[in-house]
Amino acid sequence: MKGLSPKALEQVASYFQALSVPTRLRILNFLRDGERSAGELALLSGYTGANISRHMAMLTAQGLVTRESRGTSVFYRMADDSVYALCDLVCGNIARQFERAASDRALFVKSTGRAGAAGATRGPRRARSGTAQ
Fold first, then answer.
1. 32: which DSSP letter?
2. Which residue of 26, 55, 63, 119 shows the fewest CB atoms closer than 10 Å?
3. pLDDT of amino acid 11
4. Cα→Cα distances 95→11, 89, 110, Å
5. Residue 59 neighbours by CB distance under 10 Å
């Protein structure tokens, strides 16, 4: 992105915005297997045809998918499969972050579990005020 004009950066942001909605990512995953009709995408996703149409308009506008009318049906296919490489890269990065966070939490749980079990970090118990000792 180095050296891109503000206008170009706006276009890049719009591209990523198209990928920022989970429904659209699901649709792109359905298209990994090849061309699908709008009706198929609606059935697979569980969304209405109108909802699918709205999402497909955004994906088409950003050049991620192509649209073709055949009779009364509309078919969509990926315009550029490199988006899958981008998504796989991001998914891998997120997975590594979760793995690091999980291992960090596991270390914390183990260290607090040992300290609490040993009881070595606690001092002597004090009597509460107003109670006999």
1. G
2. 119
3. 93
4. 27, 10, 22
5. 23
For β-strands 73-78 and 65-70, DSSP reports them as antiparallel
Q: Are 55 and 23 in contact (CB under 8 A)?
A: yes
* Average pLDDT by stretches of 10, the chain with 133 residues: 92 93 95 96 95 96 96 95 91 89 79 51 50 49
Q: Which residues of 16-49 are buried (b: 16+ CB within 10 A; e: fewer)?
A: eebbeeeebebbbeebeeeebebeebbeebebee
Which residues, in sequence order, are bridge partners of residue 66?
A: 77
- The CA–CA distances, whole Å, from 54 to 11, 23, 27, 47, 51 equal 19, 11, 12, 11, 5
- Entry pTM: 0.71
Q: What is the residue whose two structure tokens read 């991620």? A: 64
Q: Which of 22, 23, 68, 16 is nearest to 41 (CA)?
A: 23
Dihedral angle, C-alpha 116, 118, 124, 129, nearest 10 °: 30
- 59: tokens are 């994906």
